[in-house]
Amino acid sequence: MPKKDYYEILGVSRDASDEDIRTAYKKLIKEWHPDRHTGNDKKVAEQKFKEIQEAYEVLSDPQKRAMYDRFGYVGEDIPYSHESNGYDGFGFDDVVRNFMNEDIFNIFFGGQRTQSRSAGGRGQRSPRRGEDLNINITIDESDVFSGKNVNIDYERYEECENCHGEGVEPGSKWVTCSKCHGSGVVREERRTPFGVFVNQYTCDACGGSGTIPGEVCHTCRGLGRIRKRTSTNINIPAGIENGTILRVPKRGNAGVSGGEYGDLYIHVNIRKVSDYEREGDDIIANVHIDYVTAILGGEVTVTLPNNEEVEIEIPAGIQPNETVVVRGKGYPNVRNGRRGNFVAKVIVDIPRKVSSRERELLKEIAKMKGVII
Ligand SMILES: [Zn+2]
Ligand SMILES: [Zn+2]
Question: What's the predicted TM-score (pTM) here?
Answer without folding.
Answer: 0.58
